[in-house]
Amino acid sequence: EQILEAAKSIAAATAALVKSASAAQRELV
Amino acid sequence: MPVFHTKTIEGILEPVALQVSKLVILHEEAEDGNAMPDLSYAVHVVKNAVDNLVKVGYDTINNSDDQLLKQDMPPALQRVEEASLYLIQASDMLRADPFSAPARKKLIEGSRGILGGTSALLLAFDESEVRKILRICKSVLEYLAITEVVDSMDDLVTFVKNLSPVITRMTKEVDSREKELTHQVHREMLQRSLEQVKQLTPILISGIKIYVISKQAGGPAVQDAQDNRDYTVQKVSNEIHEIIRVLQLTTYDEDEWD
């Protein structure tokens, strides 16, 4: 289903974004 | 207790939920934070994915005749869209000030919004898929209700010819659904009821056949044959009602009971 594929793309993109932000934070912790 | 009630939803959302949780913990542990890198490209990728989801979501709504889906999906899509705006704002604020605390909060809020909105969207879609299976189950119940008018071998042949494909479709769909669930108790309940339906179907057809033969022969055996037939119909119907009930359960229902 197209909607599942679209949701997968959002989840992957959001996970990548949050991971970048976390990596920057982790340097300090 | 699993958080996501299907393996598909779990597979999509669990990795991002994990990342968001980590970011929240890191944010709480280091309130002032380190300098954030430029997140504009990553946010741009999210925004493109959101735009695509919104397009696909409205296409799904427009092509569906499921009124509940039409009602449930737009708020979820709006939530995802709003969350993506938070991410864009956070990214803009962080580019101006990589140490901005309000920007970090906005980033977390946006990420949570994407997660929550996508989760609501997937749930609405999943519930719609479940309703399709429920309709198949109900059509089997409708066929079972006409068992009592089968009183000739010709009727029986037609009855079996009509019932078989619907029962086969129902067992196939319920079987697939059962394998999709993350909740072990619900899976076992569906397996048990499905197995009962599979075992009872030939007994039901045999019961109708005995009734037809008894009726044509006449005599006191007719009543017993009718009672046996009705008893089996009732048992199959009960199992299908149980399947319908369990299909509509989510893990949250049991949490509420607890």
Give a verbal description of the structure.
The complex is a heterodimer of chains A (29) and B (258). Chain A has 29 residues and is mainly α. Helix content of chain A is 86%, strand content 0%. Chain A has one helix spanning 2-26. The N and C termini of chain A lie far apart (41 Å). By secondary structure, chain B is an all-alpha fold. Helices cover 84% and strands 0% of the residues of chain B. Chain B has helices at 7-29, 40-63, 67-96, 101-145, 153-180, 184-217, 221-247, 251-257. The radius of gyration of chain B is 27 Å and the shape is elongated. The chains are: A mainly alpha (29), B mainly alpha (258).
The helix content of chain B, as a percent range, equals over 70%
Compute the separation of the termini of chain B in Å. 12 Å
Please give the count of helices of chain B: 8
Low-pLDDT stretches of chain A? none
Task: Give a quick rundown of the structure.
By secondary structure, chain A is an all-alpha fold. Chain A contains one helix and no strands. Classes of the chains: A mainly alpha (29), B mainly alpha (258).
Salient structural properties:
A: 29 residues, mainly alpha, 86% helix, B: 258 residues
How does the SSE layout of this entry go?
The complex is a heterodimer of chains A (29) and B (258).
Chain A lengths: L1 H25 L3
Chain B lengths: L6 H23 L10 H24 L3 H30 L4 H45 L7 H28 L3 H34 L3 H27 L3 H7 L1
